[in-house]
Amino acid sequence: ILLHPALLGGWLDSENDNNGDGTTSNTGKNTSHIHHPHGLSHDFLFGILPRLCGADAVIFPNAGGRFQFTREECLSVANGCRRPMGRFLSILPSPAGGMKLDRVEEMRNEFGDDTLFLIGGALLEQGPDLEYD
């Protein structure tokens, strides 16, 4: 199951419209993402919907990275991944998008132990002898 944030972002509500014109700029890029004025919530689109589709984890842009999701939006995604839903099991939230090793403790405090931390390019910057204290 692939529910990529770049393909889903246009279905989000426009509450985080930071340009005042129905778009929100992608930090560091010359692109915009159009948001529907009555779109879907972050917890549904990135948390509940993947659970209903049978996903085991969901990758979403974390606050403080390269993208414009707020802390509250990210926590709502984690809640959508974990809240009780009858026979549907919880899935792992996986905050991503510019995350670095020095943020692991902060993210663990925010999202808890049952979280899949996606740290990609930052690991390459560490070189071939990766160690974390």
Query: Could you give a short account of the major beta sheet?
Result: 2 strands, antiparallel
The fraction of residues assigned to DSSP E strands is 5-15%
Number of helices: 5
- Helix share bin: 25-40%
The side-by-side strand order for the widest beta sheet comes to: 1-2
The poorly predicted ranges are 16-36
H/E series, N to C? HEEHEHEHH
- What is the strand tally? 4
Termini, distance in Å? 34 Å
Quickly give the structural class: alpha+beta
Our Rg estimate from Cα atoms comes to: 15 Å
Mass-distribution shape: globular
Mean pLDDT: 77
How would you describe this protein?
Helix 2 packs parallel to helix 3 (71-82). Residues 16-36 have low confidence and may be disordered. This protein is an alpha+beta fold. Helix content is 30%, strand content 12%.
Map the helices and strands.
Elements: H1 5-8, E1 23-25, E2 32-34, H2 42-52, E3 57-61, H3 71-82, E4 92-96, H4 104-111, H5 121-125
Parallel strand pairs: 3-4
Antiparallel strand pairs: 1-2
